[in-house]
Structure formats: structure tokens, C-alpha cells
Write a structure and sequence with these properties.
With about 400 residues, this protein is α+β, with helices and mostly antiparallel strands. The chain folds into three domains: about 70 residues, OB fold (Dihydrolipoamide Acetyltransferase, E2P); about 60 residues, no CATH class; about 230 residues, 2-Layer Sandwich (Chloramphenicol Acetyltransferase), CATH 3.30.559.10. It has ten helices and 19 strands. The strands form five sheets. Strands 9, 12, 15, 16, 17, 18 and 19 form a seven-stranded mixed beta sheet that branches. Strands 1-8-6-3 form a four-stranded antiparallel beta sheet, with no helix packed on it. The protein has a four-stranded antiparallel beta sheet with strand order 5-4-2-7, with no helix packed on it. A hairpin with a 4-residue loop joins strand 4 and strand 5. Helix 6 packs across helix 9. The radius of gyration is 26 Å and the shape is globular.
Length: about 400
Amino acid sequence: MIEIKVPTVGESISEVTLLKWTKLEGEWVERDEVIAELESEKATFEVNAEKAGTLFRLANEGDTILIGDVLARIDENAVKPEGLPVAAIEKKEEKKASTTINQAAVTSVPNDLKASPVASAIIADKKVDPASITASGFGGKIMKNDVLDAINHPGKKAFAGNEILSRNVRQEKMSNLRKTISRRLVESKNTTAMLTTFNEVDMTRIMDIRKQFKDKFKENHGVNLGFMSFFAKACAIALSEWPTVNAYIDGDQILYHDYADISIAVSTPRGLTVPVIRNVESLSMAEVEKAVVVLAGKARDSKLTAEDLQGGTFTITNGGVFGSLMSTPIINIPQSAILGMHKIQERPMAINGQVLVRPMMYLALSYDHRIIDGRESVSFLVRLKELLESPELLLMGKDPVKTLLEL
């Protein structure tokens, strides 16, 4: 019997949280197979089986475990079972039950609806609008009682997992990641002279380019042409022209960075993470989009490493995906500035004496006034607006006609 201990993941980290087991109790595991996922205050990481054998779990999901503690044991002398593993058998049985219950025509239930087989059958039979149902199952899954509550109490909704008129109060331990987020946000507010300046950008040209080239871009590069590549490349150019926006304060020194490592704020079910795209100034638009997809996927699946989260020089956060029209983002220390993107909204604009409807986005730049002056912050944001409203400038940072005329 060998012991699987919680590995050391950093000098300052003394405990981790067990996010989930990827193998069942008593299940056979192969050598180097992932058996669990852990979360420290900085990142998530996987634990692998050191030997093949039968797994015996010694902790529960959600438990806080000290570095060096025994997480599990593996009986390497156990005999490997023949046929399907336990997990596969359970999934097969679950699929069989689901198929049996859904024998009745449930074609009126949307294919992408997350509901248990019994709940799906009742929704179809009673013609219940799924939008009127409050889901209580894991990951937003609709359960049988949720459908019955919606039928018995039309027009009334309860919080997930509770009854109508519930007065229930739940207590839940704060995760290591949430503790770190809380500490860093308070530290940022208390240690920086934070100020926010605003501007707005006309997104017409970028939206036209995406509409015209999105299919060809996807065909050539295998990735969608999003907004983030335009903003990341524009920020890289503006950061090179206003270096204090890309700098840190370190004691009585200022550390300037001659490169743009841009952190992208990503919201996950466990909290906000800020993975880094390195050397954005040297990447193509497709390379930026691919990096965004990879990092977002790793964040969603809790696969981000400490290396993915370290070393950013500037941050971009996009509250617009959630519908935010304007906000004042908090600086991601030790950085000195953060750009907030927001919802694109059509508004009437006065252009050359005419009132035209244009897709507009508010931009917010929060910055540390100890190192960045008002002139620099405003000029940075104005330059960003210029680059985004004339995307051809992103190619070399200058107007092609002025470059031709050497102006």
C-alpha cells in the first residue's frame, strides 16, 4: 500500500482545497493517471497515481488539506479487474435508465436542456416552460421537484434548492482562491492611489472587419476573430508609447517593461482568475485569439498553472460580456493600470453635423496615480480609441498615408 501525499506547490502555500476526485473509491487506476484536482490560493493542479492499483480515498471534496498530508492510498498488490471499470458501468446504467424513462415522446424538450430524465418527461407531458423552473441540481440541472414546484406555484419562484417562502440561511467555507481574491482586492484599494478615467470608442470599423473576414479568418486559423485580439494589440502599441502605464512601483524604484505581458480577467465558477498572454506586441491577431481560447479553457476546467498567472504587466477585463455598461475596475497589483471593456450599445452620435446611430463602447482605465499622471492616463486612452476606431493602424502603429508622405 503506497501513500499519495499533497505535493509542495509553493514556498508560501501551506494548505490546499480538494476540488474533486476524478476516480471513484475502490476503482482501479493506472500509473500516472489523474486521480484528483486540488486548488491552492494561486492555481489549481492535478494529482497523479504513482503506481497502478486500487484507489482508497482519505478526504472529501471541499476539504482543506495541509501540504504533505496523505490524500489517498493505492493498493499496488491488488488484482486488476476484468471488463469495464466501475465508473463506466455506472454511466452505462445511468444512460440506460435515461433512455427507458424517455421512451415517451419528449421531442418538445429542447436538446440542450439540463434536466433529469423524470423532470424532462414531466416538462414534456405538462408542457411546462423551462424558463419558469428554478433548477436545484448540480450545475443548474432541473430536478423532478423543481418541475413540480413550478406547476404547483405558477408565477412564484424559489431560490435554488429551497421551497416557496423559504427563510433558509446557508453557511459555506470560503475557498482558498476566494480568500486570495479578497485579500488582493483590499490590498489594491489600500496601497494604490487609484483613479479612473473614461472614454468611448466607436466599434463600427472593428465590427465591419469581423463581419467581412470572420469566416475566412476561422478557415485559415481555426479560431474565431473576437474583440480581444483588437484590444490586446491596441493596448500593446499604446503601452509602448506610454511606458509608465506598463510599469511597476518596487519600493523607491520604478520597473519599466519593454514588452507587453497582458493579463486577461476570466470569470470562473470558483472566482476571478487573471491568466497572462506573453509578448502580445510580438503576436499576430490569430495567435492572440488562440491564446485567449487556450487560457479561457484552462480556467474553465481548473487547469491553470502558477506560471499561467504570473508576470502580467497590464490587465484587460471585459464586463461587457455580462451586460455591464460602465464600471471602475480595480488594479491587479503589482501592476499600475487596468482597462475595462464594456457592453457595445447603439447610441445616437453627432458626426460631421449629422446624428447617426453607432455601436459605442465605454472604456475605463483605472490607474495608480502614484506613478501615472493624468496626462499619461488620458493620452493612453485617447491613443487606444484612435487605434480601435482605425484598426489599420494596428499593423504598424502609424497612419499609412502619413507614413507614405513621411509626415
